[in-house]
TrEMBL record:
This is Carbon monoxide dehydrogenase accesory protein. PANTHER family: ALDEHYDE OXIDOREDUCTASE MOLYBDENUM COFACTOR ASSEMBLY PROTEIN (PTHR30388), MOLYBDENUM COFACTOR INSERTION CHAPERONE PAOD (PTHR30388:SF4). Residues 271-309 form the TRASH domain. InterPro entries: MoCofactor_Util/Proc, TRASH_dom, XdhC_CoxI, XdhC_Rossmann_dom. Gene3D superfamilies: NAD(P)-binding Rossmann-like Domain. Coiled coil: none annotated. It comes from the Bacteria.
Length: 311
């Protein structure tokens, strides 16, 4: 087996681990490369929310552009085709819809890198053993949400959505637990009259009440359990796509669902030599001058700064 195949396998294992840990990251794949750039088509890397890169998609200047654009990809939750061009080089064949980054420190060549966000699946917790609860669970899985069934009244900490479809029992206790856990969308399957009675029992604040939906689901004239389940999941998708399921402390990463232990937003600096925005990581070249730390896109810019400014 070729070395590149082993590296791809290692990245695949690492990506699976990150998904299991519910950590957001970006998959970066080189789709075109123009000599003499060091990257080749098919080179891959995983970019963490803090800017750490595992794998290879080019030299340090290219990596800095990938880090910077990966932040945007995670914030928007949308894929991006990144065209990295050296200053003054011949243009790469035009690619409509691509985002362009010009790296003045590149030695030559151009690359196109596809950046694809990998977000933790939205967790939908379902309480109840009714046909509607089963239908909600089924439709939620069909749109790639992670479904957990609630036993007792404990709500999973990572659940942004809680659906109560038990037609009785501990509905109020589950709703209160969901509110206390910070769930952003809580749906109660009930009529207007019974729903109001349950909420009187819960006694939510005005802010909490805004997160409780009863009767829950889009008004599509649903009658059967399957139709009701469809209407509920459709409404969850509507709210999720509008950004309504982002927890208040994590609004810097606008995405469908964010784990509570989300990574902090990475720090950036401007390379004083080439003017490139640099994401600060442990491996970022830097220099301390008169007590001030200067950050650079590559060792070449650092050496130039030492020669021209420090000396």
């Amino acid at each position: 087996m070729e070395r590149a195949e082993y590296e791809d396998m290692d990245l695949a294992v690492r990506a699976a681990q990150l998904r299991s840990e519910r950590r957001p990251f970006v998959e970066a794949t080189v789709v075109r490369a123009q000599p003499p750039t060091s990257a080749h088509s098919g080179d891959r890397a995983l970019v963490h929310a803090d800017g750490t890169i595992e794998g290879f998609v080019g030299g340090q200047c290219t990596e800095n552009s990938v880090r910077e654009m990966s932040r945007t990809v995670l914030e928007r939750g949308e894929s991006m085709l990144l065209r990295v061009l050296p200053a003054g080089a011949a243009e790469f064949p035009d690619t409509p819809g691509a985002t362009i980054a010009v790296n003045p420190c590149m030695s030559g060549g151009a690359t196109e890198i596809f950046l694809e966000p990998r977000m933790p699946a939205l967790v939908v917790a379902v309480f109840g053993d009714s046909p509607v609860a089963d239908a909600v669970s089924d439709f939620a899985r069909r749109v790639d949400y992670s479904v957990e069934r609630i036993r007792g009244t404990r709500v999973p900490a990572e659940a942004s959505v809680v659906i109560v479809a038990s037609h009785g029992g501990d509905e109020g206790s589950v709703i209160r637990a969901a509110l206390d856990a910070g769930s952003r969308y809580i749906g109660l399957v009930a009529s207007h009259t019974r729903g109001a009675a349950v909420l009187d029992e819960v006694d939510p604040t005005d802010d909490e009440r805004a997160h409780v939906h009863t009767p829950v689901g889009l008004d599509i004239g649903a009658r059967t359990p399957a139709e009701i389940g469809l209407s509920i999941v459709a409404d969850i998708v509507r709210v999720a796509r509008s950004g309504g399921l982002t927890r208040p402390s994590e609004e810097s990463c606008r995405r469908v669902e964010v784990p509570r232990e989300a990574e902090s937003k990475p720090q950036t600096a401007v390379d004083p030599v080439c003017g490139m925005t640099v994401t600060i990581t442990e491996s970022t070249p830097h220099l301390v001058v008169a007590g001030r730390t200067m950050w650079f896109c590559c060792p070449g810019c650092r050496s130039r700064f030492e020669k021209d400014d420090v000396a």
